[in-house]
Amino acid sequence: MGIKNVSSSLLHALRENSPFRKRVKKALPTDTPSFSPDTTNTGDLLYPLITQLKTYLSPSDIEQVREAYRFADKAHLGQMRSSGEAYITHPVAVTEICAQWKLDASALMAALLHDVIEDQGIEKAEIAERFNTDVAELVDGLTKLERINFASKSEQQAESFRKMLLATAKDVRVILVKLADRLHNMRTLGGVEPSKARRVSNETLEIYAPIANRLGLNHLVREFEDLAFEAYYPNRYRVLKQALENAHNTNRNLTHKITDSIRAALPAYGIEGKLIGREKTLFSIHKKMKEQKKSFSEVLDIYGFRIIVNTLTECYIALGVLHQLYRPIPGKFKDYIALPKINGYQSLHTTLVGPYGTPIEFQIRTTHMDHIAEEGIAAHWIYKTDNMSLSDLQKQTHRWLQSLLDIQSQTSDSSEFIDNVKVDLFPDAVYVLTPKGKIISLPRGATPIDFAYSIHTKIGNHAISALINGKEAPLKTPLVSGDTVQIITNEKAAPNIQWLNFVRTGKARSEIRHYLKTVNLEESIQFGEKLLRQALKELNIDIPSKDDPTWEKLAKESGAHSIDEILMDIGVGRRLAAVVARRFLIDSPLIATSAADIDELNAARSSPILIQGNEGQSVTLSPCCTPIPGDNVIAVIRPGYGLVVHTEDCPIAIGQRAKEPERWVSVAWDQEYNKHLSTRLLVTIQNEKGVIGRIAGQIASVGSNIIRLHMPDESMGIADLQLTVQVEDRNHLATVIRAIRQVPQVLKIVRIKGYY
Length: 756
Known about the structure:
Helices cover 49% and strands 15% of the residues. The chain has 32 helices and 20 strands.
């Protein structure tokens, strides 16, 4: 074929000074002729890739990959990268990375075509017709949303990322190709502006490295982190790199001493293990120096080794050999074989005191575990010919990907979806037990609320407290590995917006937000209608029908989209019912819902607003005085919070009411009220052995429950015990107080009103 028939993008890649030409030329065997204008159209550019594919794909599959290359080369004709190379070099490099994972032909074709829809306007249908629907779906999942108008660039990025993750939930190959795409982009950041390089690096550390870690691709994680570190802090990277090389030269003798002693000890116990020195990455060194405020020498003063053996039994034998050879450091042993990490990682970790008091970290694992540790879910393709069982890893990955769909079903906003997904990208986990002994894996820092939602959404929605190892604990208590957790529920309980401050799983966060948006929305609308009916009654008119033209006029002038939105705004305190009611008076001028009108309208209000205490977002019982049925109450209107109810004698309410009297309204308890509210008590006790248990027993005997218990002064003698107890009403509270007084060591009981 003559030079005139070679595509311009291929010609650019073959120029004498092209970096890509140098890379390909270096990969060729010594007897391979150099490039010339008479080469076949795909042979030279694809030589390294095709050579790799011949090791595991059939000739027909390889021909399909060649055809995808020809299509991509034609589509990207004339398009250049910022480095000056022909654009086709990028999808070829991405495909080479995918080939290292031994992905199938469809995935490789998608890797070659991954930018043709986004950059060249090729339609998904054309790809499906030219190749197959499998390839078309993969390419579509990898394509950003460029043709839709978004309010901002960040919104577009978030929605594109959500699209990709949802495609990943259906086919994990989507994210593997995307990770390969990101890896090649990171490797070639030298050709882009520094500001863009820093932005891409930050996105890689925040999103793609955690995803790679979640899928068990540890080798990829390390390269992502080091490349991002080099791009973001180039000077710091160079200094650390040189310091690390110098340190290796200085400490070579000590390393040899450690390796020689281990290699001599293992065969004595019949173990033919492979000993590998573990290199600390520059990013991990930098991160540890920054977080722990340590010098370079302090961070590097720990040596790492990995021992790879043949069987599971040999892992534990090797551990025993090491513990006889060097003294183990207490608390520095972790068994990730018995309890694998969320991403399927398995290994024994131990830290020993080596020669000259030097700490040495060891990882011990089988060959199979090492494959999983380095390649994660990609090992399914790489090692599938070795009859390796990856069922556990695949199940864990499937559960995580399925959780993306669960989060998506509860989340309409793309940015919120990304936030929820980020929550789940934790590198570590805690392992807790159900009362029946089932092990539940949760992110580090997870709480009983996370545990409850991992069991079932209904359990999470109705949780009121938890038993951790048989003892009552608040729902925000961080769980640790080995805890046995039981959730106490109540059908009338509901999620609290405060839970969002301490939950750690994306599922819990999305379920809570979904509840607050849907169930509380309905409650707010109902409560808003109730307030409006009451305000209209005071004006001697009935609530207008839905087709009353005043509604439309009111909505238009106030910026609302519907009647329900107006009622919801009333319910959560963003509008005043009395002001909205005045708009329906015949021949009454429309007035604005401003603070200037509130005083006049409140003066006209005679009957109190009836509350039940379970209106959700519309009515908040203030935590400072924890009002309960039977208390004389008053409420303040707070935009976004609805009515905030206090006891009339609450010192906080008295102070606030003096400053803003116009915002306070009369309220009273309805005949039907929530019988599962709580209030706080200050119990002064003689702190003797068993006294708290006796108090708890008395509280339980009268049908109450301790929600929270705190003793600021834990010394013996006289102590103050702060209790939050669940009661039905004021009469029930009196019964609880009488029961507590029967304990001889109780000296005084006071109900707390105002912050203690």
